[in-house]
Amino acid sequence: MTTCRTGDALRVVVEGRLDASTVADIRIALHEVVAGADGGPVLVDLAGAEIGDATALGLLVEVRRHARRVGCVVHVVEACPRTLRLLRRARLHGLLVPPHPATPAPVVAG
To answer: Where does the STAS domain start and stop, copy by copy (predicted)?
Structure first.
């Protein structure tokens, strides 16, 4: 797991399989990142991660709740198609993936 600051946000890149045998270490690290976010958003990049079981989904929900308690937000900003499908099926996609802004309609002079 790597972390870098981008503006006021902390971006966390998580790689590898996330399941019951691996989330304990990642849980501690993500809670530390949230604690150090100083109220700014935490952007979780899961593009290189594989959600192995429901424990990983529970971890994302837990970290998001912790962030709310300390006054910041957590968003999943990158994820593979399988992870996005799992988030949708678990009805978590709206909570974790930030909504995409609507594309403004072109202005027609006339």
So the answer is: 1-110
| 42 neighbors 9 (Cβ within 8 angstroms) | yes
**Predicted TM-score of the model (pTM):** 0.83
- Does some domain include residue 105? no
Task: Give me the number of domains the chain comprises.
Answer: 1
CB 51 within 8 Å of CB 57 = yes
Q: Listing from the earlier edge strand, what are the strands of the sheet with 74-79?
A: 2-6, 9-18, 42-51, 74-79
Q: Does a structural domain hold residue 76?
A: yes
**CATH number for the domain harbouring residue 74:** 3.30.750.24
Structural domain containing residue 27? 2-96
106 occurs within a structural domain? no
DSSP states of 32-63: HHHHTSTTS-EEEEEEEEEE-SHHHHHHHHHH
The model's pLDDT over 65-79, given as tens digits with 9 standing for 90+, comes to 999 999 999 999 999
CA pair distance 10, 55, nearest whole angstrom: 23
